[in-house]
Write a structure and sequence with these properties.
Elements lengths: L1 E4 L9 E2 L1 H5 L7 E4 L8 H11 L4 E2 L2 H8 L1 H10 L7 E4 L2 H7 L4 E5 L9 E3 L2 H11 L7 E5 L3 E8 L7 H14 L3 E8 L4 E7 L8 H21 L1
Parallel strand pairs: 1-2, 1-3, 3-4
Antiparallel strand pairs: 5-8, 6-7, 6-8, 9-10, 10-11
Length: 229
């Protein structure tokens, strides 16, 4: 099994840097732990290079693209039975005002953006959010009703330190999308939790305890691959 990472995993984890992997012809099941999975960033190219080599890889380049576009993420999650809320994808403030009611939460559809989301409780906040997330109205945004409390947390190989509804969403997102390290945005109500978005983790957000969780995840994945193989 190949581990490609830009993180200092140490402790007996044999990992190769993204730059070295992209120059290699290494064969084997590949875990892509480049922390920036955004489209056309190094993590994307690591998965694409693994696929060109014929390596099974997580995440795949297609998954990276799908998960970075919130409307597609939510569609695939809904198909898999992960709780989501109805959403609208548009660049028109007029359409948003006609089809939704405040408060709302907005996510960028532009795959190059790192920002998570913005909330709007009135028209002026809505205009600012659409302009900012849409890069001055060049891209659409994904709009969802804000019916609960937004929370964001790390998901590492599907594991999180959240309560049961959030842990279950984290597990299911990993089962479906196989993204080892990411941040999930979820709405919580008294009765339910809903997946709203996903984004990469910045390297500075990955703490020492997260590195230990990553090492555990690699070990568990290695056993799974060995059993399947």
């Amino acid at each position: 099994m190949l581990v490609v990472s830009n993180l200092d995993l140490a402790k007996n984890v044999q990992a190769v840097s993204p730059a070295k992997f992209l120059e290699s012809q290494n064969k084997g099941f590949t875990i892509n732990l480049d922390s920036d999975y955004r489209y056309l960033k190094s993590g994307y190219y690591v998965s694409m290079h693994a696929e060109i080599l014929g390596n099974p890889v997580i995440p795949t380049s297609r998954t990276i693209i799908d998960a970075s576009r919130t409307p597609i993420l939510l569609l695939e999650a809904q198909k898999a039975g992960i709780p989501t809320l109805p959403n609208l994808t548009t660049g028109s403030v007029k359409q948003i005002l006609q089809e939704t009611t405040f408060p709302i939460v907005l996510f960028p559809v532009n795959p190059f953006m790192y920002n998570g989301y913005k909330t709007a409780n009135n028209r002026s906040a809505l205009y600012r959010a659409v302009k900012s997330l849409g890069l001055n109205y060049k891209f659409t945004v994904c709009v969802q009703s804000l019916i609960g409390e937004m929370t964001s947390f790390k998901s590492i190989f599907g594991k999180s330190n959240q309560n049961e509804p959030l842990r279950r969403i984290s597990e299911r997102v990993f089962e479906v999308f196989k993204i080892p390290v990411c941040k999930l945005h979820v709405q919580r109500t008294e009765k339910e939790a809903y997946l709203c978005g996903l984004q990469p983790l910045r390297r500075e957000e990955i703490l020492p305890e997260d590195l230990e969780a990553i090492r555990v995840g690699i070990s568990e994945m290695s056993r799974t691959v060995t059993m399947v193989g």
